[in-house]
């Protein structure tokens, strides 16, 4: 509960729960949150106007035989907490059509509970994989598949073999039909998935990349949640990242309103939840 309580005390308006209990027993999973605690978290978040999301355990692969039950538990957790989004990783080893087929039951469960599935890019998935994924989703008649979007993780994009050290190029290669509904923001130096807080990696020297990312998101009218995906020491690094990111977002909005480029003329969008 410590990170959630910190977010509430410091005025963050988005928070993501990540059940990730280790074999050693460290961490937590959905079995550690009893119904009463889930209800309390949901009520507290609503009262504080905090938008919640849940990150499914990264080991959950819809293509595996035992994944359906685990996915159902994660969707139930999201619904109980009042979370709007459940984040899942994309797995491509069996091909995109097979992944979409395997995902269909989870889409139906999520849609019934007013939860969107946000499919996240991993280090091993490319912009082409996501273009193909959402092209495949568009072919399906099942309306529940409309409850899917993309979770863009810029740290993973920065490590993708096709766009190493250039997460902006990863975003640029995503076709317009790919709906980005959720963001994970963290940094690395292109060598490991180190989850550095924003503005403590390359952006500590120049924030041009972050400014251009904001421009890309505004061009897509992004208005979802931005998750600073780490629990650093000191936690005040999160406050610094949030405040600076919002300042850059607002600066870009002001430029657009005055008719200037940012770095190009862009439609304005509601500010994200962070």
Description:
The protein has 274 residues and is an alpha/beta fold. 41% of the residues lie in helices and 13% in strands. It has 9 helices and 7 strands; from the N terminus they run αβαβαβαβαβααβαβα. The chain has helices at residues 2-9, 35-47, 67-81, 96-112, 127-139, 154-159, 167-172, 208-219, 236-257; strands at residues 14-17, 51-55, 85-89, 116-120, 148-153, 180-185, 225-228. It has a 7-stranded parallel beta sheet. Helix 3 (67-81) links the parallel strand 2 (51-55) and strand 3 (85-89). The chain starts with a helix and ends in a 17-residue tail after the last helix. Mean pLDDT is 90; it is low at 255-261 and 263-268.
Short structural summary:
With 274 residues, the chain is of the alpha/beta class.
Descriptive keywords:
274 residues, alpha/beta, seven-stranded parallel β-sheet, 7 strands, 41% helix
Write the layout of secondary structure elements.
Blueprint: H1 2-9, E1 14-17, H2 35-47, E2 51-55, H3 67-81, E3 85-89, H4 96-112, E4 116-120, H5 127-139, E5 148-153, H6 154-159, H7 167-172, E6 180-185, H8 208-219, E7 225-228, H9 236-257
Parallel strand pairs: 1-2, 2-3, 3-4, 4-5, 5-6, 6-7
């Amino acid at each position: 509960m410590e990170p959630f309580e910190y977010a509430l005390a410091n005025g963050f308006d988005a928070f993501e729960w990540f059940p990730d209990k280790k074999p050693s027993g460290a961490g937590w999973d959905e079995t550690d949150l009893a119904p009463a605690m889930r209800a309390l978290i949901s009520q507290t978040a609503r009262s504080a106007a905090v938008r919640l999301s849940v990150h499914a355990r990264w080991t959950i692969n819809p293509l595996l035989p035992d994944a359906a039950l685990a996915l159902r538990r994660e969707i139930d957790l999201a619904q109980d907490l009042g979370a709007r989004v459940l984040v899942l990783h994309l797995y491509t080893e069996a091909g995109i059509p097979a992944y979409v087929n395997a995902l269909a039951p989870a889409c139906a469960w999520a849609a019934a509970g007013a939860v969107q599935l946000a499919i996240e890019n991993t280090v091993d998935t490319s912009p082409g994989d996501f273009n193909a994924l959402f092209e495949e989703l568009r072919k399906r008649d099942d309306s529940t598949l409309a409850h899917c979007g993309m979770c863009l993780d810029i740290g993973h994009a920065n490590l993708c073999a096709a766009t190493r050290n250039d997460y902006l190029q990863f975003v640029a290669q995503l076709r317009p039909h790919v709906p980005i509904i959720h963001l994970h923001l963290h940094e690395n130096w292109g060598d490991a998935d180190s989850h550095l807080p924003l503005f403590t990696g390359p952006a500590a020297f120049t924030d041009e990349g972050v400014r251009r990312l904001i421009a890309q998101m505004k061009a897509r009218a992004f208005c979802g949640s931005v998750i600073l995906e780490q629990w650093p020491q000191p936690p005040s690094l999160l406050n610094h990242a949030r405040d600076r990111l919002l300042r850059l977002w607002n600066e870009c909005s002001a430029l657009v309103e005055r008719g200037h480029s940012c770095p190009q003329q862009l439609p304005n969008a509601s500010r994200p939840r962070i």
